[in-house]
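Journal club side-thread
Mid-discussion, someone asked how the predicted structure for our own chain would compare to the paper's figures. Pasting it here so we can look after the session.
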Amino acid sequence: MDKSIRWRIVTAVIIIICIIFAAVAIYLIPRLYNLSVEEDFTYDEKVSALPVTGYAPSAEEEFAEQAELVFINMTWAEWEPEQGEYDISGLEKKYQLDRWRTAGKHAVLRFVCDRPGEENHMDIPEWLYERTGDGVFYDTEYGKGYCPDYSNEAFISAHQAAIQALGEYFNQDTFLSYVELGSLGHWGEWHTLYEEGLPAMPDIETCWQYANHYSDSFLNVRLLMRRNYIIAADGNMGLYNDMVGHAGDTQEWLDWQTDGGCYELPEGGLPYEPMDEVWNTAPVGGEFTSSIPMEQILTDDLEQTLSYIEQSHMTFLGPHTPLEYEGLEKGAAAVEDLLGYRYWISHISVDISYMEQTFEITLTWENSGMTPLYFDWPVMMYVYDRDGNQKYWESVDLYLPDLLSGSSVTTVNSFPFNDMFREGYTIGIGILDPMTEQPAIELCMNKEYRNGVNIIYSYDGNTGKTF
């Protein structure tokens, strides 16, 4: 046989053997070290760290420590006791704002001009009353108080300045998450008992002015309205229901969202705009009604209560919550389980490419909650070595507001492969709260949650075990 032919044959055999060895190595090494893997996870709803959702008790109360949200229900009188002088220190002290900020909590705010009570009083500043004075003191089925004339130009101008100052204070960070448009009507709920001789709600143009005071002044928050006025629909606002637990009023509130309609006024009216499935783009909040005992709402009427909360797709409830009652823990927990988002990862795929020297991690994300998170909080992936040292970190391309209830999204991250990972590695996920810039959300899955980071996969090179 010709030497050149023999050499070609030998060379071809060597190449074939090398290819076989390479293929065997590529196939066996990942399996030998268990570096490439696929695993399914199970959903676990019993988690504790779900910021900006759940109960929102009054920020004044000690039991607010139990919640992730606190409620600031303040009056104009306490905010601006003298014209142009805003009581920031009083606001911080009364509502314990430094305490809750330090604890990593977030807040809901409602600014109120008329809160009915048991005694004669005003909820607007004395100086504003002296300047306007065209409202009506009342004693009605709601209680006692003072209903301003919201059409008064001086009142509107002063309101704009007060809301702007309030926004400037809260815009310093992202502690404030939700603002319920108050200001107008009893409890700030955008309705008045004009049938009993009180000033009526102003016309739609004037209502727009009040709404714009809020949208122009507050950054980094989601706005909510008591009713689905056209203002809420056009402004991509959420809604809140302060009659949770009252079947008739809640059904009427839901019907407005489906059918539209109008809030009748002596002259004209304020139109409702249908807002079906508003929860897909904006938050829904509210509080339990005070017209029905909490014990009844959470025991005899519990199934009805849960049904309406589920239909409403609510994110938070406050400031009237079950946290201030004893013996209702079971019903309170059942309600809380329906509030907000529940993110988790159902599947992981780790693909080690020795040829390309990459470490590709594919995740399937799920949301088993009733709503998404309404804020674009950064999602981070961390890769640690065997000793727990963070070696790589990278953002995950996931916009959480788009991960709606019942939906799933797949993400892919790629890291440089390093031989140290043969000895062991761990993959963690952190969802960062912009206020603290630290991981803050616990994923609802059967995995370890460590200092804000969700440990979703670990490999021990010594034992070959995965965790």
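Post-session note: The chain has a mean pLDDT of 92.
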